[in-house]
Every structure is written in structure tokens, then in C-alpha cells.
Amino acid sequence: MNTAKQKAILFLVIVSACLIVTSVYLLGASKARNDIHAAGDRQLQIIALDLESVLERYETLPFTLGVNPDVVQVLLQPADRSAIHRLNLTLKLIQQQAKVSAIYLLDREGNTLAASNWDEALTFVGRNFAFRPYFRDAAAGRAGRFYGIGNATGEPGYFIAQPVYANSMHRLAAPVGVIAVKIGLSELEQTWRSSEEPIALADRSGVVFLSNRPDWRYHSMTPLDEPAQRHLAGTLQYAAQTIYPIASLPRSVRAGFGDHVSKPVGRLGWQLMMFPAQARINRAALLSALGAFLVLAATAIGYWAVHQRRRRLEERQQSRKALQQAAEELDRKIAQRTQELLQANQHLESRYAKLQEAEHLLRSTQNELVQAGKLAMLGQMAAGVTHELNQPLAAIRAFADNAVTFLTRGQADKAAENLGHISSASARMGAIIGQLKGFARKSHDTAAAVSTVDLAQSIRASAMLLESEFRRHGVRLDMDIDVSAAVLGDAVRTEQVLINLLRNALDAVENAEQRKVVVSLDRQEKDALVRIRDSGPGIPEDVAQHLFEPFFTTKPSGKGLGLGLAISSSIVQAMNGQLSAHNLPEGGAEFTVRLPLAADQHHEHGGALAHARSHTD
Questions:
Q1: I need a surface site. Which of 63, 209, 281, 447 has the fewest CB within 10 A?
Q2: pLDDT digits (tens, 9 = 90+) for 528-539
Q3: What residues are paired with 54 via a beta bridge?
């Protein structure tokens, strides 16, 4: 084959390849455009549903407010200042709870009589909004809807209005006023800013009022005609600004404007639009063309490889030899790597054994620390308990002496009465000692010690141990235990937490003018709540952030190690609960123990225990 013919064939191959690559590019661009538009349409569907949800969420709010007795009262008697003030407070409360921009009431002339922003500098009260379309629609007995820039605040929003009738059951008469709600949509705009493609929401005139491109806002998709401009000026929908088309903006600002997908949304003829990036279409088409080029190049290389078959046979022989050497090298490296992995595994097993030993030591140390905390607490209660035991001991001695005297005199009935008193005093001492023994015993470790704990009984037992302490310091202890609450845990450790919190409350009111501690038990859904409130000075701000840290204490030296709250918090967390503290508005502090109820109490509506309200002066 001569050189000229080879050149001609090569030229034809190159031209054919260029035509094929160009065709693939055009087909890829078309497919990419369709795919991107379909994806944009799906994304617009999600955004539209979100927008519809926000708009429909408050659709019934003005209708509901329209049947409020104070609304009708203010419209029928606009001079009733007390009714207006009461309605202002109600509207402000509803506005804060519903998280809307404003709620306000207008009379038949469009004058605002009451508003949720009555106490703000830019209040709606006293302003006339008769020029707004939503007022005219509602005054005519229809639901009014409108989006625009606020005439009073300058902030845009979506307005929903409903007529108010003197008698909500008879709506054939003319409305006596209009109730309106303003909703801010700026949060939607913030959400859209995460999208790379421009997103815009335009009204029926084509004016963009929401967009993730701020410079597009209050510009039109196309130039507006004179009637549309007059309509916007008459309603002050976008204040007094002139609406220019987006195409009039600088090129850098209007980048991305052009081909778009749209979807109708809302009840006012709005259009939600997304502008897919042309660069994505070009990139997808370029990738398709590049793929075609690679296929053609691979075909050419394959054709060239056929003609080089003889040479490649020699190369294959060399490759086989090199492959055999590589396999031998790979086997050697695998054996070496296997040995390294075995050594690493032995090292990990050794470290795991040490970790288990450390965990066992930590658990043992933690249990000893809990026991030490209980014994320290028992030491703090020793004086009160000694005083509590001395009283029945003295009584036993006196009654015993009296019984001997009565028996000597032959007065057996009176001797029996004194023996009964001795039995009661002994029972009292036995109960106190039993509580101390139960509290002082060491709790079991591991999950085997978990059992059902009656919180009401634990509160009473803890209060009994500290009763003499409260009485000796002249502190009143009130208990409000009206419900039953069973949780899973350790009864001894639960009582340790309660006693520690009661001791802290007792210390907090030591220098207070009113010495009082209140313990209450409540149930909240699937949790039991124990609240311990005191009338002390409260928790200082610099102390609150370190309250549950180990060894942090505000007590003087010798009064505590700062472990009580840290241990209590650890015990509550081990029971899948939470221990928290905060100051009360009326003064003092409140500690709250939140524990999950046992499974058999999750579906109860609240079983009533015998009312156990008591106090100690």
C-alpha cells in the first residue's frame, strides 16, 4: 500500500472519529439536560411540599382566632380598653407559641384595634391596612391571602386573613372585622442557600420575592407591563420600589439565569423555579464524548496490537518469567506479613488482658469509693442518730424502773402498760438501727444486684435516717409522695443518693431565714422524677459548672471531700438516669433525679399510693 493511500485512509479515519465524537457529545448533552431537568423537577417537588406544608400549617389559625370571645368583644365595643389589653396579651402569647411574625385584628374600615406587637415600637395598632388585598378579600367574607413587604415593619411576609362575625354560628351577615396572621418565610430562603443551583419563588406577575440569590429578589423574570406596575404600586406589595427584570442585572449577578424548571405552588399562582447549571450539562456531554474518544482510541490500539502479535509473543514469554518471579516474591512477602500479624495479635491479646485487669481495678475502686461515701455520710449522721437512740434508751430505763415499782406494789396492770412502752421504744430503736445497717452494707457488684426499687419507700427510709438531723437543726422537711414509682437498680445506692442530696439541702438552709426542704415524687411519661428543693441561697454561677466534678466542694476544710455529688451522679447514670440541678425563681435550689420506670409501669396511668405528706420542725 503506497504512502498516498495510507494518508487518505488515515484522513478518513480521523474525520469519522471526529464525527462520532461530535455526535456523542450532542447526544450526551441532550440526555444530561433531560436527566438534570428530571432531577431538578424531583427536587422542586420536595421543596414545593415543604413550602406548601409551611403555608397550610397556619391556614386555620385566623379562623380559629376569629371565634375568640375577646375578638368579637373588641370589634363590637372598641372603646373597652380592658378587653383590648386582654386581647393584646392573648395574641402575643399565641404569636410566640405559634412562631409567627404577627397576629392583629382590624375593624371594618381596616384600622388595627389589637395586635401581638402592641408593646413594640413598630406596632400595628392604630395603622390602617384597608389598601391590602387580603383585607379586602376577608372584609368581603372570603379568606384573604397575600405576600408582600410589611408597611409598618419593612419585613416581608405571607399574610392570611379571615372575616370575623358577630355571631360565629350565623355567617350570613356582614363581617364585623378581620383577623390576620403574618408568617415569615425567611427560613425557607436560608434552607435553599445550601443548593448550588439558583432557586426562586415568583408571584403570578413573575416577580421573584424569595431566592437563594439575594440580588434576584424583587426583580421580575420578564419586564412588567404598565398595569402590573400600577397594581404593585397600589397594594404596596413590594413597598415603593420599581421592579426591574433580572436580565438588567450585571452579568456576574445574573449568572445562572436562563433555562429552568418550574412548578406551581400555593394558592396565589406562585411559581417555584430552579435553574440547572449549564456547566453540569456541558461536563456530562464532555464526559460522554471523552468516553467515545477512549473507545475509539482503544479500538485503534487494539488494531495496532493485532499487527504487533509476533512481537508480543516474545514479550509474553518475558512476562511469564517476570510473573513467576513476582509470584515468588509475593509468597515471601505474604509469609513475612503473616508473621508480623501473628506477633501483633499476641501483642493485642496481652494489652487486652491488661485492660481487663485495669477495668476490674477501676470497678473495685469505684465500689470502694461509693462505700467510703456511705460511711462518711454515716459519720455525719452519727450525732443525730445517737441523739435519736438516747431518747428511747432513757425512756426504756424509766419505764423499767416504774415497772419494778408497780410489780412491788402489786399493780400488775400498770407494770404491763410500762412494759408495752418499753416494747414500743425498743421497736423504734430497732427500726433506726435496721435502716443504718441496711444503708451501711456493701452493695453487690455486677448486674446480678439489679432489682426493682420502690422509690417512695427509699425516700421514706432516707428521710427516717435524717429525721433527727433535721429536727436538731430546726429545719422543716416536707414530703410529697402521691404516686408509685418502681425503677431498676440497687436500693442501697438509691438511698445513698437521696441521703446525700438531703444532707446537701440541710447544709444549704443552715443560715437561711426560712429553713425548709421539700421532697416530691412524680411520674413523667416513662420516667420517675424525684425533686429535692431547699430555701437556701441557691447555687452560685461559678459553682454550677463544676457541681458534679470529683473533689470540688464549697464547704470548709473537714466538712467534706467533694465526692458526694460526683458519686451520686455516677450511681444515677449507672441506673440509666440523670442527676441535674438548677436555681429556683423564688430562691433556693432544686436537685432532680430522673430515672426510667420499670417495664411493668410504662403503660400505667399513675397508681396512687397512700398520701404520705409529713414535715419535721
A1: 447
A2: 999 999 999 998
A3: none
